[in-house]
Amino acid sequence: MAAAGFAGRARAAGGRTMLYVGALPGKVLVLDEAEEKVVEQIPLQTGVPRGLTLSNDKKKIFVTSQTHSGIEVIDLATRRVVNHFQLDEGNRRVWFRGVAADPQDRLLYTILTTRVKQIDRFEIEKPQFAVIDLAQQKVVKTVDYPKEEATAFMGGGLRVSPDGKYLYQFRENVFIFDTSDFKLVEKIELSKPSYPGMENINLGFGDDPHDEPGMLTALFLSTDPIVHRRVFGIATFDLTKRTFEFTPVGPSTTGMSGLRLTPDRKTGYTMAFYDSLGNRRAEFWVFDMTTRRLVKRVEYPGFPGFRFTLSGSGAAIYISGSAPLVEVYAAATLTLKKTLDVNADLTTGMLVVPG
Q1: CB 200 within 8 Å of CB 220
Q2: Partners of 351 in the beta sheet?
Q3: Nearest to 115 by CA among 134, 96, 91
Q4: Cis peptide before 301 (omega within 30 of 0)
């Protein structure tokens, strides 16, 4: 595409909500929310995308890829890759366990697990915090993850405090690390009396563009301390004050997608699913966020192996999986509007970037 034509399209898209999603063989698809179609394909340099993270200034997307642990930076004004590199070296392969950017979008914080390929085996090194300098295109600092807190599968969402001083990891507990030396400065044990029975926070896929700045609104699971009944609720975490507000809502299900808010933050949506394998079924759930109540439930008729996203306007729900199809549901009626064929198998959740 000619540069002038590309710039014209970028200007025309100003003020419009765009959707970004990773796809095979190694690209990011751009969908126009108003037109409900793919309007651009951004080729990547490092392989299959596995994660998309919106920068704090909302002008870039950080892409992580799996083939050689690549990192790419997409400029949203031009929809071009402006920086790319990979972390694998020789016989060393690394896994990303979450990515979060510092407030200035210069550094990426992650937890890495390294596999060293030997002639007859793989050696797995203990997990480490890593600081990635995007300008230098390399890891500039590593610190061992606290041994007493490490587990074999210790995934969990990462967030950086608004002042850049602390890195939060949301697991069965909330771990707060100092970004200067990665010392554990606080562990909020969600099962302690201050947070009775609370177990974990579901961050869902990608960032919610409508959450209040410096706050994290999410779903949690809890176990009643008396009869041990599992319930779920809505939690709000202040990334500056390190404080929780949480409200139990009702009996827990087998699982839930991440909570997504409308632009006015008055309504929230998620998908709940029950049972597993051939018996698995799912429902749309709608919450009144002013009262923290579940106000509507509608059964989802499709196969519940999905990724769930709310549109930038809050008027549509997108359901996608690994197939090249995206279902578009009307949020007001929870009925299917159309199915989009994006002509590429999808590999990430959908990132919503309001204009």
Answers
A1: yes
A2: 20
A3: 91
A4: no
Give the Cα separation of 3 and 5 in Å (integer).
Answer: 5
State if pTM tops 0.85. Answer: yes
Backbone angles phi, psi at 262, to 5 degrees: -75, 165
SS3 338: strand
pLDDT on residue 9: 41
Q: Tell me 262's DSSP state.
A: -
Dump strand ranges (E) for 27-180.
27-32, 37-43, 49-54, 60-65, 70-75, 80-86, 92-101, 107-117, 122-124, 128-133, 138-144, 157-160, 166-170, 174-178
Six-digit token pair at 231? Answer: 């319930």
- For residue 129, give the nearest of 93, 170, 167 by alpha carbon: 167
What phi and psi, each to the nearest 5 degrees, are found at residue 165? Answer: -85, -20
pLDDT tens digit sequence for 75-85: 999 999 999 99
Percent of the chain with pLDDT over 90: 62
Structure tokens at 113: 């697990």
Kindly compute the dihedral angle of the four CA atoms of residues 87, 139, 20, 55, in this order, to the nearest 10 degrees.
-170
What is the tens place of the pLDDT at every residue in 273-289? Answer: 888 777 888 999 999 99
